[in-house]
Amino acid sequence: MIEPKQLIKNIERSKDNGPSRFYKVRLDRSERNQPFSAALMERIRKRLDGEWLMTYPEPEPLYNKLGHFLKQPRENILFHTGSDLCIKSIFETYINPGDKILLHKPGYAMFFVYAKMFGANTITTSFDSNLKFNYHEYIDIIDKSYRMAVLENPNGFVGVAPPKDILYNFIEKCEKEGVIALIDEAYYIFHDITAAELLDSYKNLIIVRTFSKAFGLAGVRAGYILSQNKNIENIYKVKAMHEINSLAILVIDELLNSPDEVFSFVDETKKNLQHFKDGFFNMSIETSDSVGNFLAARIGKYVPSMKVSEALKREGILVRRPFAETNLKEWTRIGTGSIDQQQKVLDVVEKMMIKPDKP
Length: 359
Fold this sequence. Notes:
Layout: H1 6-9, E1 25-27, H2 38-47, H3 50-54, H4 60-70, E2 77-80, H5 82-94, E3 100-105, H6 109-117, E4 121-126, H7 135-141, E5 148-152, H8 164-177, E6 180-184, E7 205-210, E8 223-227, H9 229-236, H10 246-257, H11 259-282, E9 294-297, H12 305-314, E10 317-319, E11 332-335, H13 339-353
Parallel strand pairs: 1-10, 3-4, 3-5, 5-6, 6-7
Antiparallel strand pairs: 2-8, 7-8, 9-11
């Protein structure tokens, strides 16, 4: 057997080979659960012919349309196959073995995978058991010895976002110390505080976003990077021959033609999130101050999180496995869905919290 290089041997990846998640209530990965409009689906069907399958992708018109939507110059944008490959391309471009990078826990798993893959030394700071994070300490750690520091805006596991002044201070400190400020804005549009307003002023700022969340396109695998043009030119050098496929181009183009399809979903999700928070509050269960399309609920304080996950699975409802971090074991991350879907979750949890009367 041919052995992989040592850096790859040290990486462990879980296998996603479980039962199909199609046609279930998927509250485990922050996917869209509400259907797209029939009108949108019909427009996509009408446009999708053999040319889209036989011809290599031509993304340039979509670059211009997205730039107009974001009010960003086209030259500040680079597509990739999902935010995970956006992140990988940044590591490929800038991170050498031995470089020091700053990460927080919990955080998107691929940051840690790529750190190992490219031989980086990671320094981490964690949320505490009450989902509080010391942003000031995190920023104070940054100095010239780091190559890159990462901040999720908001955090992709608990949904908490740094205050705007903290976000800006983080970027300012990275710029001052000559450190790459990588901001993960996977939940942009749900959360409208963005680092993109600073792109003109900070040459070390790189923002990563996805079309999987507010756009609801987890299945087409598309994301993009925002940064100053010089950085985009450098990252462009390591991109695949074609950074995004034709089906993704077609579907994203149609959504940008119908922005109300996105914004109405965002508005509905915000209302549903509040319904979820209110439902848990009525059971005296703490929830995170999430600004995404999910929340973390402290269900494990009253009933083991795994038992809740198993009970919901029997009802056809998928939620994320319990947190791996010991200090977060009481918390369960649950995505938003329709009011009816969420009410079923609340009913299952409430039933499990009720103790039977003694005979």
